[in-house]
């Protein structure tokens, strides 16, 4: 018993010693947290809207000045075979944020054109921002969202960036449209819609037939037709007048601060917001996604940049984006964060070749040697810039020619932020770190699949046993004029049967030898033609087996505007108009 009492006394700890132990544990715990924070990099991810790969000096442009963007290539890695997961804004951005093909997330349509639509990125989808936020990162999105807003009311914000991992949001829930700039026309080309064209034709014909006495038409029918024509004209005029108030909205988190927004110095304002976020978040790991509204039409540039380029307002806008990139890089340097920040720049798809201003001026960029542009799955529509800088961690001046995807940022950010990839869904992106560091010499993407809306249009294959990259098309758009590289009669290429040509057997290209997709392979020019096609079709079957049924978030019913979902910062009688930002 005495021995037992001695042992018990030996376990007693004085209050002072206990406090010292607790303080030591707390300090060690804080040091561990601090160590983890300093080891985990910050992320500055930049996406330019509709920027062509041929618009940047580091990809061969000789006529535009983009020194700050080019510095990312000289100080980091340039991806020369970087692919957008879709050739249109909304599905491409959904894939970028989730690391998943749009067909898996329900975002496989065109692009949202109304804030009052009910579709959007489902809440069940995980973005790299939501996973980074769970790991203690400060997160922000500055600029364009374009992935939906509301579901059941004008303020539920079920698809808002705040609901998808971005703690701070300053920008447009939609996109920059022609309608957002007075005098620049509209994206709603009514003359192209058959029902309206038919109705107007019948009305005009009825009036002409009556007044010229060509047929005995009752007077009441002519009067009714005339009033109907006036009504249609008034409805169209009212709609076009209201579009800027409906769609051209600037928000700070859940509050509308400008409706309709002004493009005056808009890029400069958003750059300032990005700089402010980095300054106030510099003490912790942060993830900043700068999603530029430029260079989508209607084009705009601040007064400091208008007339600064040899390519009109488009070139001016590109050079203003380059200035903005410079401001962000300078801020990282000033805050001492450059060495511990992963910087990435890309475009959501290729340049839009068919875009023209209201006065007929061409307002598109350059896709370099690549065929076609935005809205097509030719290389000009989906091969985009891919620049990554992480000083001391990845080489300087390295060029990687292996196929990569904008979906690859999802697993890369998750890996570097300390998160875990979700196990309950297919992730189509592949981590980039081994490829960027030189540990691996080949892409983890053996196959890539390219959709036109919900239809599989093309397949890309990087065989392990040879250096070629093959691409196979099941159908291609009908260009007009026939020998052109775009759909200039419709201003965008469509996927429906009357706008495409189906290929059986599929068209096959070797992108390594023919990056411009000018000459399809045949059994005579490629000895392994049939084996290649069979291998790619087998991969297509496996891909389709991996798909699960999903509600289409971009169906006609979810794309159409619903008055009860329309965001408005004032009463309707005041035309939903406000300016709280300036």
Structure in words:
With 582 residues, the protein is of the alpha/beta class. It has helices at 2-10, 15-39, 67-75, 89-98, 102-105, 128-134, 194-211, 219-247, 266-281, 312-334, 379-382, 409-417, 433-437, 529-545, 556-559, and strands at 42-48, 77-79, 82-83, 138-144, 168-172, 250-252, 255-259, 286-291, 341-347, 386-389, 398-400, 404-405, 447-452, 455-461, 470-477, 500-510, 578-579. The chain has 2 domains: 41-176 and 248-579, Alkaline Phosphatase, subunit A (3-Layer(aba) Sandwich); 190-240. It is built from 15 helices and 17 strands. Strands 11-2-10-9-1-8-4-5-6-7-17 form an 11-stranded mixed beta sheet, sandwiched between helices. β14 and β15 (470-477) form a beta hairpin. α7 packs antiparallel against α8 and α9 packs parallel to α10 (312-334). The protein is globular and about 85 Å long. Mean pLDDT is 89; it is low at 1-11 and 23-38.
